[in-house]
Amino acid sequence: AYHLDMEKEYSTPDKVKVITNLNNDAIYFSRSPIPYFTGTIPNNVPVYHHIGIYAFRRDFLLKYTTLPRTPLELAESLEQLRILEHGYRIRVCLTAERTLEINKPEELAAAQDFKYNADR
User: What is this structure's pTM?
Assistant: First the structure.
């Protein structure tokens, strides 16, 4: 995850937000703006953009496939919420690097353009 651009990305559902505890364990993921700020947005509240790179142990992957889908997972359409709702922990690793995401067809075209230009 990386620090969210609060002006450009905070309100868009295309950018999955994650908030963490002080140990960098995920508290919640959402397509909605989280946390909700009652006034001006303070600089010291970290809100991250989830980039969706996972590292699982084999035994957990086998367990995950047996876990029933959960209400929050279905509501947000975010599979990682199934893990949290079943009481498991997700450690969030932070990076300063922004990456290209491919979640929609137009993002695929942008990634192909990026690769084409990088190969030149």
Answer: 0.84
Query: Do the Cβ atoms of 100 and 116 come closer than 8 Å?
Result: no
Which phi-psi region, left, alpha or beta, contains residue 81 (left: φ > 0; alpha: ψ -120 to 50)? Answer: alpha
CA pair distance 80, 41, nearest whole angstrom: 26
Helix, strand, coil proportions of the chain in percent (round to 5)? 30, 10, 60
Contact 18, 10 (CB under 8 A): no
Pick the CATH number of 2-118 from 3.30.300.180, 3.40.50.880, 3.90.550.10, 3.20.20.70: 3.90.550.10
Q: Alpha carbon 78 to chain centroid distance?
A: 9
Residue 18, classed as helix, strand or coil, is: strand
Domain extents in the chain: 2-118
Give the residues across from 29 on adjacent strands. Answer: 18
> How many CA atoms within 13 Å lie on the side-chain side of 30?
13
Q: What are the pLDDT digits (tens) for 83-117? A: 999 999 999 999 988 877 777 788 888 888 876 67
